Structure formats: structure tokens, C-alpha cells
Amino acid sequence: MSSKMFFGSYLAGLIEGDGTIIVPKQERSTKGKLNYPSVQIVFQLKDFPLCQIVQKLIGHGSISKKKNTAAYILTINNIEGLIVLSNLINGKMRGPKYYQFTLLIEYINKKCPNLNMKPLGFNLSPLESDSWLSGFIEADGSFQVRTSLSSKYPRLSLSFELVQSRVTRYGFTMFTIMENIAIFLETNVKEIRSDRKNPQYRLRTSSLKTNQNIRDYLVKYPLKGTKYLDFLDWCKVLSYFEQGTHMENTAHIVEIKSQMNQYRTLYNWDHLQ
């Protein structure tokens, strides 16, 4: 995690998945109060240790509990912290939040003209070349085990899902980056919740090959939050599918599923050491 290259790409993915880059249009509010830019990253309550690690590695920021939700927010809004953060993720962003990032750099250059920081453009390297997707999945991915055993034809299935709003809060589409991820994993992007206020894109792996694709990537670039523990359990089930022994190991698969995701009660943070 402390490797600068791994952390920078991972952090860029984390921000693009569950972060917000806020750059005020006016230097002062109508009441004359100074407006400051900020970068905010949201973490689930159970990922508080990860939130602390990210704060420590950036070396700046404050953590607050988000009202009425099960989440913490890491906020970086001091100029030194924004400079450090910008240097970490510059050249590593792949999605439309890059446009907000360029506005942040503009702000930094106005405040610190000697810096002359330049935005390095979108990261167009292959997804398998860095940890960006790991950070993005940390924010919005999920590992699913389905056990339909009470029906006439008992069925077990395994999938990984990634869901994003179709449009960012600043009006940019998320389709291109979702399609790039889908192509990498050899699956498709689907439109869901079309009749809702916030329609979404979803990609899902479901075949043995596509599940192996995401497994192989995340072995190379590991997750860092509690989702890593769900991934390890999911991989145990995947190994049964690879061996063709999943139906005869139904009881163990049901047991594994009963302790994953929202049902997890035991947390081990050794992977963050």
C-alpha cells in the first residue's frame, strides 16, 4: 500500500469511485466568506481502519462521521494537502472526474504560481497495468454468491458486480469508463434503474472465465478494505467452480455466503500491515 505508484493509482480509482472533487466557482460566498476547494472520499463505517491508513499516507485531511448514514468522510481542504493529493493522482485518472481535477490544479496554480503544476491527461494505459481498478472496485464493487436451493432445480452461481450512476454530479457520462472495464473483464455494460431518479450502469461477471479475469487482476492488485475479506471468501467458492465440485460442496458454500458482505461479523486487518 505504501508504494507510491500503487497508492497513487489506487487512490485515483478510489476517488473516481466514491470521491468528490469540489472547486468553488467564486472565491467568496455572497456573504463574503472565503470558499475553499476540497476532495472528499467516502468510506463505509466498517472501513474506518482503511480511512485512517489513506489519511496517514496522504499526510493530510480530517475524518468526520457522515450524518444519518453509515459512513465516514475523509476531507482534504488545506492547500498543502491538496498539492500532495494532486501529485499522487496526476496522470492516473481514467474517468470524467478528471475534468474537476483540472479545475483543482487551476486553483492550486493561482494560489501557488511558482508550482506551475500541469495536468497530465487521462491515464490511457491498459487497466491491467496498475491498481486504479482496485481502488474503483473498493468504492463500488461487490462479490456475490447466489444459492437457489429450495427450487425444483437447485442452482449455485457466482458473480462480481460494479455499479455506477450513469452521469456524474457535474453532468459527465460514466459509460466510457464502465465500457472499458467491461471489455477488460470480457463482459457487458447494462442500463439499470432506467425509471428511477438516478439511473445506473452495471457490469457483472458470471461465467467461469469472466470470474477468473477479475480474480487474477485482484490477486495482482489487492483490495485494501473489508471487501478484500469478501473477495477471499468468494475465491474459495470460485475454486469449487473451477474444479467442477460446487454442487457437492453446497453446504460449505452456503456457510461461506452466510458470513460475507453485510453478514460479516469478524474483521481481520492483517492485510493492511
TrEMBL record:
Alphabetically ordered keywords of this record: Endonuclease, Hydrolase, Nuclease
Ranges where the Homing endonuclease LAGLIDADG domain occurs: 11-106, 133-237
GO molecular function: endonuclease activity
GO cellular component terms, semicolon-separated: mitochondrion
Transmembrane segments: none
Pfam families: LAGLIDADG_1
Tree of life domain: Eukaryota
Matches recorded under PANTHER family: INTRON-ENCODED ENDONUCLEASE AI3-RELATED, LAGLIDADG ENDONUCLEASE
Task of the protein: Mitochondrial DNA endonuclease involved in intron homing.
This protein's name: Intron-encoded LAGLIDADG endonuclease
